[in-house]
Amino acid sequence: MTKQQLSIQTLPGYSPDIGRQVWCLEDVRGTLISKISDLTQEELDGDIEGLHSIGTLLYHVAAVEAGWLYGEVLCRDWDEEIEALFPAESWADGRLLPFKGESIEQHIQRLQKVRDTLCFHFKRMSEIDWRTSREVEDYHVTPEWVLHHLIEHEARHSGQIFQAKRLLRGK
Q1: CATH number of the domain at 16-168, please?
Q2: Interatomic CA distance for residues 20 and 38, integer angstroms
Q3: CB atoms within 10 A of CB 20
């Protein structure tokens, strides 16, 4: 029996350090997509006491990724094409806002478009830019730290999504 090789790879086309972090980000996304592709509309929009709906969490994951890319890495306004993917606010007064009514295909397309945009910008980034701090209103942040944060953010919300799916299916 051949043992599975568990290791982080460098994605082609990226500088080595950036390519490894983007690989990690993509690994988390692959797990998420593999476990949500079969969700029904009722499961996406379903309410479970004390939890956000799965659709709300998916919308939030994409919005946060776009927000950090444009706000902290690129330090500019969102492109119109990305902004059009977010017809409603995701966050207000320290709370997630409910987002319902979109199909799993729409959620996956949004997640993928934001990710494609992030990858486009990080693929062109130099190692120097990767570690160059950006000054935003409340802090200084590097693109390297942004990817770390996005990996952690998506992994945590993926756990909430998987829990909600189990509860909705009674498993």
Answers
A1: 1.20.120.450
A2: 29
A3: 16
